[in-house]
From TrEMBL:
The keyword Methyltransferase applies. The keyword Hydrolase does not apply. It comes from Nonomuraea maritima. S-adenosyl-L-methionine binds at residues 339-345, 401, 418. This is 16S rRNA (Cytosine967-C5)-methyltransferase.
Amino acid sequence: MTRPFREGGARPFRANENGNSERRAQGERPRRSQGGGDDRTRRSQSGGDDRARRSEGGGDDRGRRSQGGGQRRAGRPARDVARNAAFDVLRAVDERDAYANLLMPRLLRDRGIRGRDAALATELAYGTLRGLGTYDAIIDVCGDREPDPDVRDALRLGAHQLLRMRVPPHAAVGTTVDLVRLRIGPGAAKFVNAVLRKIGSRTLEEWLPIVAPDPADDPVGHLAVTHGHPRWIVSAFRDALGSSDELPALLEADNARPLVTLVARPGRSSVAELEAAGAMPGRYSPYAAYLREGDPGQIDAVAETRAAVQDEGSQLVALALTRVPVGNGGDGEKWLDMCAGPGGKAGLLDAIATHGDLAGQADGGSTAFAGGARLLAADVQYHRARLVWETTRDASVITADGTEPVWRPESFDRVMLDAPCTGLGALRRRPEARWRRDPAGIADLGRLQRRLLGTALDAVRPGGVVAYVTCSPHLAETRVVIGDVLARRDDVEQLDARLYLPGVDGLGDGPHVQFWPHRHGTDAMFLSLLRKRA
Ligand SMILES: C[S@@+](CC[C@H](N)C(=O)[O-])C[C@H]1O[C@@H](n2cnc3c(N)ncnc32)[C@H](O)[C@@H]1O
């Protein structure tokens, strides 16, 4: 992973005498640090032989001999399983583009780390990754040279403990220095000690005015640094919200750990069953339940794919598609989920197709689907199609490219197009994702989204409906795509999607809807419902 907020210049800026930093320009894109080459080839901080002492690969420590060759010698730091695990995750994210939320559970399991240590390791790694942009700005002010990537990761870890966790300063500094001495070397440990002491001399609230641009001059840059988001993403969120008023609340929500949300697939499980397993009913979706603690995989209904982990916004956009009246299409309805992998929405659509929208029927909803549809779920990637097959029961699942349809035109009553997108709406779930996304990719994605929407509209029969969904609020992936496709076709009308989400407010002025983490507690899902004219 590359570093955020770095512009050219060989040395970091230092705080000037007024306590204000000479700021780096806030870069639009994360970039590799100086030198253009591989950071790993540079010499370590100490200029000495620290690297020879460094543990190999940041991997699993089990089975390796301790520093003292069997017995820990006096004066040697003890291994701190939580901080070592967090450090390994940070290194893997940086060096191998690992996904923290996939790697951390595996690493905890492999090393037998449980309970409080597991919770601490997770908070250390995820919190550090989320706040990385803010911590880097502070580290740059406090250090007198560019740290090597592994040293920077250790500094970020220390900064997170000092500035955002309730770890006492002496413990935050001491444990991080111990970790660096063990994993990197004594020279780097000295440097880290000095920088962390400077960082710990102020609170986060005191640092922010020093390292962040003045909000009066640069409101977006200010929010980017104070809320740890790349500037281009803050701009994109402001454009999608239509003003800056809610930006701080949105960015704050993005930095908070989301509740685990479950879906009880109708006819296969129920919210009551999930409640009995410790969950509480969701706010909007009649199939949602929130799990405050515990491993969802331990719940029988989840293990048996009768229920699953699924964001409430994702549930609602799928449900909305099933609630649009499409007239009588003949015998049982035919549904298509065109980009189905890994199968979250397909799992819910599959259950409703077979058993009906049982909660909607129980509420007397006149458009609640009665059941008896057949679902075809497709994904261009075999391994993702396989995941769909594993999580659905009755659907037919194929590997297919939605831009080159293998199905007959106008053969479906309802089509779900959950388009490949930047995923900017789900940043709270993947702590490092915000620093990985690249605005340069949006144009290519936009072309694919337009092509897929075109084939989705071709696939639906007259009177049928297409749900265009993204897990991104970026206008270039949402309203602009819809506007362009509608401008080129006269056989499609946009429905007011809010009508199919009764009881959910704050969805915008329509006809599309936009969910927001700070308003709804969901991912920032976008939904447009498009009907093919009869
Ligand atoms: C946003 S994800 C879909 C998430 C899924 N609907 C769910 O709820 O779990 C987008 C999916 O589109 C697939 N995809 C990308 N290009 C595609 C194409 N040309 N045809 C079909 N699927 C495609 C990707 O492999 C990815 O699985």
